[in-house]
Amino acid sequence: MTQIFVKPVMELRLLNIHFTYSDEEDLSTSHPSRYLEHMIRHEGSSSVFAYLKELGLVDYLSAKASAQCPGTALFYIETRLTEKGMQQYREVIRIIFQYITMLKESPPLAWISDEMSHLAEVEFKFGQKLPPSQTLSGLAQLMQKACIPREHSLSPSLIHKFDPENIECGLSHLRPDNFRFFVVDQQFPGDWNATEKWYETESKLENFSKISCKNFEPQFGRRSQRGPLKFTC
C-alpha cells in the first residue's frame, strides 16, 4: 500500500483516498456507486463527516466514483483537513475505514435509494436548462455507450431501481488492501525525496503498514417523514 505526500504551491491541507473500483457503465439504471457516495459524503448529524468535524479534524469531505476506461474505475474519498487533522491524518483514515466497515455490516436500505431517486427526479425536472450545444455534445457521448437503454438516453442521471447486490459489490472494493492515499500540505512531512520533472513539484512516496480500526459506531440518519413526491403535467 502506498502513501504519497505532495507539496503544493498554494496553502492546502488535503487527504485524498483512492480505491480501484468496478466499472458500472452497464448499471446505468441503478447507479449503485451513487448510494455509496451519498452514504459517505452526507453531512447529517450521524455522518462520518459530522463526527470528523466534531473532532476538529476536517472541514470538508466528498466521495465520487469515476470511470477511467472500459472495465476500470476509481472511487475517491477526498477531505480538506484542519491543522489538527493534518497531524492526525492516519486517524482520519482509520475513522473513514471504520465507517465503511459499519456500512458493510448493515444491508443497503431501500428507503435511502428511494429518496435519492426522488431527488434525482426533482433535479432532472426542475434543474437549469443546458445550452443546446452542451446537450447535443452530451447526447453524442451517450450514443457511444450501447449499455444505456434508448428510453433513458435523455435522463441518464435518474435512478430507476434499487440494486442492493451491486451496492454491496461496490462496497467490497472499499477495503484497506485496495487503496492508496495522497496527503497535500506545504510543511508536512517536510523531508521530500522526489521532484517532478516539469513543474518541479516536491513529493515523497513510501509504503505504509495496515491501519488498525477501533470502534466507531454512529447511527444511520432517520428517515424523512415527508410524503412521496408527485408531479403532474
From TrEMBL:
Residue limits of the Peptidase M16 C-terminal domain? 4-108
Similarity comment: Belongs to the peptidase M16 family.
Q: Which Pfam families match?
A: Peptidase_M16_C (PF05193), Peptidase_M16_M (PF16187)
Q: Peptidase M16 middle/third domain: which residues?
A: 124-217
Q: Name the source organism.
A: Botryotinia fuckeliana (strain T4) (Noble rot fungus)
Asked whether the UniProt record includes Hydrolase among its keywords, one would answer yes
Keywords for the protein's UniProt record, in alphabetical order: Hydrolase, Metal-binding, Metalloprotease, Protease, Zinc
Q: Which GO terms describe its molecular function?
A: metal ion binding; metalloendopeptidase activity
Q: Which cellular component terms (GO) are annotated to the entry?
A: cytosol; mitochondrion
Protein known as:
Uncharacterized protein
The UniProt record lists the keyword Hydrolase:
yes
State the source organism's domain of life. Eukaryota
Q: Name one GO biological process term.
A: peptide catabolic process
